[in-house]
Amino acid sequence: MWMQQHAGQQVPEEVFRLCEQAVRSLNNGSFGPDSAAFVHWVHVELLRTEGPPQKHRSEDEWRALFPRYPSSSTDDGYLLCFEPSNVDGIREALQKFGLCVVRVLTESQCEETVTGMFEEVNALRAYYGVVGPPVDPHNAATWQIENWPSKNRYLVKDCALHKQAFANRCNGCIYEVFAAIFRERRLHVSVDNWGIARGARDKPDWAVFEASLPHWDVSPWRFVEDVQQGLDPGYQGLVALTDQNLETGCHLTLPGCTHFMKQWCAERRQDWVGANQSFKAAEDDPVVPYMQPVPLRRGEMVIWSCGQLHGSIGSSSQDMRLVQYIRMYPAPEAGCKVGVSKNACSQSDPKNNGKNNNNNVTISCFSYIK
């Protein structure tokens, strides 16, 4: 009864004591010294099976919880983008919104990366014996699912190993940004995947197949527990290799989400979720409508907290959306309290029960990179 009347609040000890008295009374005082433990066990079972009541909030209350990441000063449909040298701005944006956008690659670096991406895609096609014309990012006739090295929604099933992918992982701008975020120059970098989404204007089923549903890369309960223990859950990142907007599809996030996660967990029935598994948001979760699209110019990188609800918008364009996933974190010898799950990366797929589609490894990214 107390939980129903105080939705979203922690049950105080006084309520547990009153429940204990009621239990003793119902059992004529014969329940013994275990009555308190029984009451707490019942409370845990209620949270596990029935779930706590959710607090009802007004539209204004929801909007106040999730502030919009600011638009570009040119009002061109894109968002505020920092230079890597703007350390204070990057840190403040991550603290307030749980994400930031940073300019990291030049036009020529993006072009070289796209060339390298499709060199690797077509090399993989040959390796796996795929028959048909080479995949051409400018020719939609080559985009049919049977023409790719993989039929999963990433269209490639191996981490990106082209030399240009490694050049980007050791890019000085990206390195300086993560060094500033962690206040640490001894960093490791993930060897992660390409991100490919086909233009789906004439093939709407491609948009559905390749869109990423709203999810967390780690269990929200695990995130809250890590934060309470003083552990930084770390950050994810992706670099846009093509211009990305609402038509081409783009990253989607819930700004300010990390500040709300403790309360979100207090209002949900807890499911057991492993440390290395993603957790998909329910379609009717009231936070989902407050997610914000993150359009990106070519060469911009969005970095977001591992505690941030995120996903992507499907394409309604004829153009591909291409990205490279990159994240950095302090090396073990740095002694930082940063949580790095073995396979917790942006490629975990909520449509695959949260399991990762590839085995990611790490390489060192040394402090002498300039």
Automatic annotation (TrEMBL):
Name of a matching Pfam family: PhyH
Name of this chain's protein: Phytanoyl-CoA dioxygenase
Record organism: Polarella glacialis (Dinoflagellate)
